[in-house]
Amino acid sequence: MKKLILSVMLALGAAVGAHAAGGEEVHWDKAPSRTNDLPALQHGAKLFVNYCLNCHSAAYMRFNRLQEIGISEQQIKDNLLTVSDKVGDVMKAPMDPKQAKEWFGGVPPDLTLIARSRSGHGGTGADYLYTYMRTFYRDAEKPTGWNNLVFPNVGMPHVLWELQGEREPVFDKVQEHGHETKVFRGWKQLSPGAMTPLQYDQAVGDLVGYLQWMAEPAQNHRVRIGVWVLLFLGVLTVIVWRLNAAFWKNVK
After folding, report:
1. Which of the residues 71, 74, 129, 168 could staple to 66 if both were Cys, CB 3.0 to 4.6 A apart?
2. Confidence band (pLDDT; 50, 70, 90) for 214?
């Protein structure tokens, strides 16, 4: 029992020490819901292919399924495929896994189900991704030159930095439980990007919306069927209730 209490105390002490050393919990922003917005999904698919698919695969999604969000087969061929890709191929990154491990310290994860697998106490997987893609900042001490508030010491560089520009986080130092901690207050823009902050947030929202759709393409169809089923059951309940009343009205 004493060993258990000691272990718990040591764990709590380590957690407090890590927080005092500069660890800060970042609130996840609410991601916009765009899984029913076809233009947003199409834009998100374009961003995914142009910026994410170079390193990350989506091995459980085929290019031809993009027709479900209004992109024609010819548009897929003209705008989203490389020379060696075919419309029926899965979305596989061209990067060699061995080289990826050497460059980033690990193989970039498959993103097919990333929007469903990243949910946590801070919100949904979409909320995590929406916040993650908007909290990169310059860090000269990291091999890639970038760091992230949601995922500290991340091995991934900021692939959308030309769109967002370069920023650095602003912290306030406060005393908490006798320790000095950092509280995130906002961002300082170091250099502008090709997009305004509002445009960048909208673009990330489109990208996250596409990742949500890709994680479960049948989601919207499933929801629509569920609504009709509930309406049917509601009507059936009224009919059965009236039949039951008619059947038993003369029974005493």
Report:
1. 71
2. very high
